[in-house]
Amino acid sequence: xxxxxxxxxSLFSAYIGGLSSETTARGVSVLPDGVNEVGWLSTGLKxxxxxxxxxxxxxxxxxxSISLGPMGMNWTNTDAYAPLAxxxxxxxxxxxxxxxxxxxxxxQNNMTVIYNNKNLAxxxxxxxxxxxxxxxxxxxAINFALPxxxxxxxxxxxxxxxxxxxxxxxxxxxxFTVSGFAGTVAQTPIGQVQITGIPFKSDVSLSGLQGL
Length: 212
Prior knowledge:
8-stranded antiparallel sheet
């Protein structure tokens, strides 16, 4: 149902984001042997209502690493410091803290590119896009494409972006960091859930053009 989808999505998102969800626990019955109910004790238990905050005991690091495939930048617009960036092959290795399977089918993300310890640009791919979940000996990963998204350079980082593009043009590779929040739509044993606000931070690198 829609209510169940929204409830589970909200609960998952809050837990993964390190937020507290107020839940209520009510007694149902007491079955010492798993079959026979102890009437008087069950009556007492049913009268109890406990408010239980549900929160992860420590910050969760769901997304372990991010790697980019070929990345394109399109400067056909009028702003030299807001090209459209895209990548057909983004791979995010992840590990969920739950003991059941999770098949991610859609993703969205909002990330900041950090270069030389400085915020260089923002990439806000807010539109949901298709994703494929794979699992092998190395673990579980989400495979998706970064659609054409404005690579918006910070106002005080234009010279840093010039250096970034120059190094990618003449060098063999260039390292930087991406940090932000992701959203996923996933199929689970309890149904489909939408998990938002998943924090991530990962060092990545791009292969350079080596002076063509």
